[in-house]
C-alpha cells in the first residue's frame, strides 16, 4: 500500500525537459519590395483573385479527388491510432478467460468409466503506474505528431492548389505562344509563295527562295514543338485534377484568351507573421515538440517502475467442489545494470531533438528565402512588363514597315526575315514575361502559406469531396 501511495503521488511528475516553442530568428522587416504597400488581408481561396472560373473549377476538382490528400489523411489516422495505443499503456488492463472440458476417467480396473466435466474462469488485472511520466511523455509526443500530420495535410493542399494553378497558367501561355507561331507561319507561307514566284520569273536570286523555305520550315518545326508542349500540359492537368481528358478539354475550351492575372495580394509586413501562416513550419515545430517529449520518456525509463497486478481463478468439476483462488500485490522493478542501454537511449533522444531543432531553424530560413526571392522576382517582372510590351509593339511596327518596303523592292528578303525574327522574339518574350509574372505570384501565395490559418482542421476525403461539390 505504501508503494502504491508513493506511485500515486509521483504520477503527477514527468521526467525530462518542459517544452517551449522556439522563437524564429528573422529580420524585423522584409528586405525586398513588397507589392500593394504590404497590406494585410486573408488569402483563403486565393485563386479566386484571378477571376477565372476555369482555374477555380480545376482546383476544386483536384482537391475533391486527390491521392496526395488521401495519403496525407491516412497518416493522420495512423498518428491518432498511435496516440490511442500510447495512452492505453498508462491505464489498467483487464482480461478474462474461461475453459470447459469433458474427460472419460476409469478409476480402477474393471470399474465403470466416469465422465468428468471441468470448468474454470480466470480474471486478470494489471496496471503499471506511470511514476515518472513515461507514458505521459510518449502521449505528448504522439499528440504532437498528430498535429504535425494535420499540418502536413494542409501543406499538401496548398501545394496541390499552387501546382494546378501554375500548370494552368503555363497552358494558357503555351496557347498564346502557339497562336503567335501560327500567325507567323501564315505570314511566312505568303512570303515563301511570293518569293518562289519571283525566283521563277528571274527577279530574285535562288538563294532568296532557299531562305524563305528555310524560315518556313524552321517556324513549322517550332510550332509543332509548341503544340506538343501544350499537349503535355493537358496531360499534367489530367493527372493533377483526375478529370476525364475529354471533359477537361471541353472545360479548357472556355478559358480566356490571355494569361490570367490576379487582382491583388496581401503580403504581411512582418516576416514573423508570415511564418506563422505556413503549415510546413507548423509541422516542423510539432515534430520538435514530439522529440522533446521523447527525451522525457527516455529519462523516465532510467527510474524504477511500479506495477499492480491481481487475478481471480474459479475452477470446478462434477467430481469435486469448486475452488476459488486470488492474488493481489504490487511489483517494483529497479534497473541496476544494463551496460548503458537506457542512458544511450536518452543520448539518442537528445540528439534527435537537436536534429529536429536544426531542421526547424533551416525550415525558417528556407521559408524566408522563398518569400524574399518571390518578392524580388515579382518586382523584377513588374518593372520589365511595360518595357517588354513596348518592345514587342515597336518590333512589330518595324517588321510591318519592312514588309511593305520589301514588297516594293526596297528591302532584301534577309532584312525582312531578320525583322520578322526580332518581332516574333519580342512577342515570345512578352508572353513569357506575363507567364512568369503570374507564376511568381503563385509562388508567393504558396510561400505565404496559401491562406492556411493555424488550428485549421483537416478533413477526410469524403468531406473534402462534399465541400468542393458545394463550392461548385
Low-confidence stretches: 33-42
Largest sheet: 4 strands, antiparallel
Q: Could you tell me the number of beta strands?
A: 4
Category by helix and strand content: alpha+beta
In angstroms, what is the radius of gyration?
Answer: 37 Å
Number of helices: 11
Helix content: 55-70%
CATH-level-2 architecture:
Up-down Bundle
String of helices and strands = HHHEEHHHHHEEHHH
The CATH top-level class label: Mainly Alpha
Report how far the terminal alpha carbons are from each other: 65 Å
| Strand order within the widest beta sheet | 1-2-3-4
Per CATH, the superfamily is Outer membrane efflux proteins (OEP)
CATH topology term: Outer membrane efflux proteins (OEP)
Strand fraction equals 5-15%
Q: State the domain count.
A: 1
Q: Based on CA inertia axes, which overall geometry fits? A: elongated
**Mean pLDDT, all residues:** 84
Descriptive report:
By secondary structure, the chain is α+β, with helices and mostly antiparallel strands. Helices cover 62% and strands 12% of the residues. It contains 11 helices and 4 strands. The chain has helices at 2-10, 53-64, 67-88, 134-201, 206-241, 245-252, 271-275, 279-300, 341-407, 413-447, 461-471; strands at residues 93-105, 114-129, 305-317, 320-333. Strands 1-2-3-4 form a 4-stranded antiparallel sheet. Strand 1 (93-105) and strand 2 form a beta hairpin. The chain is elongated, with a radius of gyration of 37 Å. Mean pLDDT is 84; it is low at 33-42.
